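Annotated sample (chain length 457).
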Amino acid sequence: MTSRRQFLSGTGLLGAALVSRAGAASLPEAPLRESAEAAPPLFPSTGRPYNPVVTLNGWSLPWRMNNDWKEFHLVAEPVRREIAPGMTAHLWGYNGQSPGPTIECVEGDRVRIFVTNKLPEHTTIHWHGVILPNGMDGVGGLTQPHIKPGKTFVYEFEMRKSGTFMYHPHADEMVQMAMGMMGSLIVHPRDAKFMPVDRDFAFIMAAYDIDPGAYTPKVAQMTDFNLWTWNSRVFPGIDPLVVRRGDRVRVRVANLTMTSHPIHIHGHDFSVALTDGGWVPKSARWPETTVDVPVGSVRAFDFVADNPGDWALHCHKSHHVMNAMGHGVPTMIGVDHRGVAERINRLVPDYMVMGERGMADMGGEMEMPLPDNTLPMMSGSGPFGPLEMGGMFTVVKVREGLARNDYKDPGWYQHPAGTVAYEWKGEAPPAARKQPAAADPQGPALRARKPAGRVGH
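Output written by the structure step:
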């Protein structure tokens, strides 16, 4: 039997503790993942049963049971993350990815999480929203010593309540979170019959400012971000949510950006079932199609996928569904600058007129030269042409006849005949006529009797 003493150094029960050299040999494996595609759900082979989540463009961290402890191993390290095909960022994360792997456990579990630091500076991990002993809260300098490069610390606590939480550093937080250090933490209910769903999805929202052609985020940026991501991915690189018709679906959305995000679904309505503070009583819920997710918060919403099709799911802030957005671009709508463009072309052959008819020219139909390692502002193609989207956008694909745990992309929806908007081929409707000005309610006779104004006494 392995005791706590074999795992911990002399700091003992007071907080997150440094793993001794003797105890290091008993560390659990630290799995790595390089793929940016969503991994299949990780069904528990030991411990209490639960219905696992699917992390968009991510994965769940395997564990081992050591007596009655569920043990995980996170490695904080520099990583390379594909933001979407054609662009890679140099970030910091955990176990080969940013965000780090989702940690899944069950209410009542005793968890032991080893954290090894392979960053060039110290770090910690804060378990955002989790109720735990103060010394395990992960605030460097306040509740524990910092984890210095090359060292491994261990956190131990019991999951006292179910819910959707996060983990992220509380050490040099501005830099480390801006570099992508974060992850989801899901605690399933002890009673598997409590608030069950058929399919369960999770992702974290993060924002980056990476110049075209560059690879590393500007960590001092506070407002002018150009990449709005779900699990450090942008459309068209974000996985679709594949569900069976009739499934009850839960979507867990965490926000570690510097602004709120109104997350909107098409074709369905939902109710918010869960925040990072806990479950919302059924009597307190109401139907919505959009939920605003504040900074540093989690919102999980449930809906029944009863409307087949390919339905958009996105942030409703329009700049957040664009990539490599330059907010200093002037508005040129209605300006005919072709003559100027011709003269500039003699000096700059690749110069292109942009925006005089809107920004759709920047979409998928136009092949524009781009700097290395960047993405077009609007991208993606659908069955009817360019989607003209980017950033925080994906598709909920509701289909008949999927197997229970089939998450493979089924392709584009095949619309039944007569259910697609179409071009009118008949006679054009008459042009609208200009309406006459409204009559003066006072009338001309009354106006004639009104004095012209006083000019003297």
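Annotation: The longest strand covers residues 69-84.
Annotation: Confidence is low (pLDDT under 50) at residues 1-14, 444-457.
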